Amino acid sequence: MINTGKKKGFSLIELIVVFGIIGVLTSFSVAFYNNFKSKESMGSVVSALSSRLRLARERATLVQTPDGGCASLVSWWVRVDARIRTGYTCDGAEIYYFGDDFTIPTEVDVDLGGSGNFLIYFLPLTGTNSAAVDQTINISTGAVAGYTKQIVIEASGIINEI
Predict the structure, then answer these.
(1) What average pLDDT does the segment 78-96 reach?
(2) Which of 8-22, 64-78, 126-140 has the lowest mean pLDDT?
(3) What burial letters (b/e) apply to 132-153, b meaning 16+ CB within 10 Å?
(4) What's the rounded Cα separation, in Å, for the pair 116 and 110?
(5) What is the average pLDDT across 86-104?
(6) Percent of the chain beyond pLDDT 90?
(7) How many C-beta neighbours within 10 Å does residue 24 have?
(8) Which residues contact 23 (CB under 8 A, 6 or more apart)?
(9) What is the value of pTM for the model shown?
(10) What tens digit of pLDDT does each residue of 6-43 get?
(11) HSE toward the beta carbon, residue 73, CA cutoff 13 A
(12) Burial label, 49 (beta-carbon count in 10 A; 0-12, 13-18, 19+)
């Protein structure tokens, strides 16, 4: 075998370049994944909140309670704090509609007029918003990703996603 003086393998510069390219691609992948995750989390909150608002409005309009034993239905409501919960007020007592909790992911902010804890009430028969004014719920992923959506509840009780 004739030795031509060529070395087998990669030089240090070639390895540094390859690892640099891998590092750049990895950082872009992680950034895109985090943005995707933020959008998906916000989308799930918008979907959960919208469906619970529509459920509460529908049940209020039909004057319907899960057990049917309510003599005096005052309202159906949606409570938002660290979770989204639906329930109704009957004979002066707030009753949760069990099994309907949705925990809001920590990277998503939900607020109504600057408050992250709020209640939206729908009145029986009409399904109108008890505030009697349009209410806008802001849902965002915070300052890092900066995605925002809104749910507007009109005074008439109609719910729109923006």
Answers:
(1) 89
(2) 64-78
(3) eeebebebbbeeebebebebeb
(4) 6
(5) 84
(6) 52
(7) 10
(8) none
(9) 0.81
(10) 677 889 999 999 999 999 999 999 988 888 888 898 99
(11) 26
(12) buried
Contact 131, 123 (CB under 8 A): no
Token pair, residue 18, equals 């390859």
Amino acid identity, position 2: I
Buried b (16+ CB within 10 A) or exposed e, 74-109: bbbbbbbeeebbbbbbbeeeeeebeebebebeebbb
Residue 134 tokens, joined? 């349009």
Angle at 38 between CA 78 and CA 113, to 5 degrees: 40
- Picking from 107, 53, 58, 54, the residue whose alpha carbon sits closest to that of residue 80 is 53
Q: Which residue has the tokens 């109609």?
A: 158
What residue type is assigned to position 93 of the chain? A
Can you list the domains of the chain with their CATH numbers? 14-161 (3.55.40.10)
Instruction: State the Cα–Cα distance between residues 83 and 102, nearest whole angstrom.
Output: 5
Nearest to 81 by CA among 113, 56, 30, 115: 115
Six-digit token pair at 93?
């007592």
